[in-house]
Amino acid sequence: MKIAVLTKAIPSYESSIRVDSSGKWIDEAMVNYVVNESDSYALEEALQIKENVGGDSEVVVVTLGSEANTSKVIKDGLAKGADRGIFIKNESTTTDPLTIAKLFADNLKSENFDLIFSGLQSDDMGSGQTGVLVGEMLEMSTATLAIETQVEGDKIKVKRELESGWFQWVSLPFPSSISIQSGINEPRYPSLKGIMGAKRKELNTFEASPAEQGQSFVNLYIPKNEKVTEKIEGDADTIVEKIMDILKNKLKVIS
Amino acid sequence: MILVVLENQRGKIHPFSIEAVAAGQKFAEQLNCELSILCIGEKVDDLKSQAQNFKANKLITAQHAMIDMYSADGYSKVLSDVISELSPKYVLMGHSYMVRDFLPRVSAKLNIPFVSDIISVDFNGGPHFSKQVFNAKLATSIEVSSEQALLSFQSAAFSSDDLKEGAPEEEVQFNVELSDNDIKSHSEPEFQESSSGVDLTAAELIVSIGRGIESEDNLPIMQSLADAMGAEVASSRPVVDMGWLPPYRQVGSSGQVVSPKLYFSLGVSGAIQHVVGMKGSKNILAINKDEDAPIFEIADYAVIGDVLEIVPKLTEEINK
Question: Above 0.90 for ipTM, yes or no?
Answer without folding.
Answer: yes
